[in-house]
Structure prediction request, 277 residues.
Amino acid sequence: MARTRGSADSHYKSLDGKKVLITGGSAGIGKAAAIAFSNNGAIVTITGRRQERLDAVVSQLKQGHSVVADLLKVSDCARTIEEAVAKMGGLDILVNSGGVWTDAMLSEPLGEKAFLDGLTMHVITVARLIEEAIPHLSKNKNGAVVNLSSLSAIQVNPDSAAYNVSKAAQDHLTKTLARKYTRLGVRINSVNPGFVDTEVFDVLVEATGRTKAELHDWAKSENELHEICTAEEIAGPILFLASDAASFISGVHIPIAGAAQVQLEIEDPSIYFADKK
Prediction:
């Protein structure tokens, strides 16, 4: 019998009618989360930089809206919250799914620009969005924030220093703000995926010169299920943390990596490929 793969459509009745903002919702995990929230009755607004990509996702939502925003610009944060609240008539759940892996982070992972890009997107922007959202999330004493972090916050790939550090800082921000805002009725948690079958593999193909099939084999070797996690398998835990099923959970990070998190570190891809020569 084949292993059952996860789905986010698990009848989270408490999400019906909730107003959800998802950053980075035009692709990957953000897109999967948007569709899953919508399938469970939520009203969803997604953000992204390209209107046409946002429109393609909104067309798949039962009640969907979009806000064009470049969240590498911290100045876009307040406007994003304001427009989302105006479109939906409120805000109950914030999912910080937006992320970056810029050219600088790939080519000079110890360079100043790499650190500035990573920390701006994964820490400063996330902090600003949460701060702007708190007055709305706390109104009914039942708000929720879910930050999309990474297994790289827990383990390290030596060639991704800026990304590792920014995600570790984001996890500490999650815990800090959970202590600050849970008392207002706003729970703040994060999910920490390992390798997920999203557009990130297209970036890795260009950066490493390897084929997608080779990179998929490498990713499978990094976890004990020897499979690649799907975006939908991350959307499920996001919905759980945002729902009333997680009503007493705040300030936690959930690794979603097929037991890869029990390893001491993520191996450099070159080690894996060297064995295949």
Summary: The chain has a mean pLDDT of 90. The first strand starts at residue 19 and ends at 23. Residues 67 and 83 are 7 Å apart (CA to CA).
